[in-house]
Amino acid sequence: MNCFHCGKGVMYGRSHTHHRGVAGGRWKKRAPKTQRLFKPNLQPVTIMEKGSFKRVKLCNKCLKRIKKDMVDGKKPFLTIANVPSNITAGIAAKQAEMR
């Protein structure tokens, strides 16, 4: 799964735990390293694209950028179909502040 806008996807890496003060020498029970997946924080969102609704997955970073652009009065790179009420309240507050 990838982000619809930025293409962020699964990354591969290693994780390990640190054993501190283990009896029996330095290398007997060293910290094991295991392969793992780092998954992006994808959220399902309905957007409007070319006049029709489309269900896509966006990473949380892109979603935060869209919400911030909407509150600041900028044109976001994607149009969210169902705008949460807290964002619309923030937009109204910003517009009242500017007047």
UniProtKB/TrEMBL annotation:
One of its GO terms (molecular function) is structural constituent of ribosome. One of its GO terms (cellular component) is ribosome. Keywords: Ribonucleoprotein, Ribosomal protein. Belongs to the bacterial ribosomal protein bL28 family. Gene3D superfamilies: Ribosomal protein L28/L24 (2.30.170.40). It comes from the Bacteria. It holds the Pfam family Ribosomal_L28. This is 50S ribosomal protein L28. InterPro entries: Bacterial_rp_bL28, Ribosomal_bL28, Ribosomal_bL28/bL31-like_sf, Ribosomal_bL28_sf.
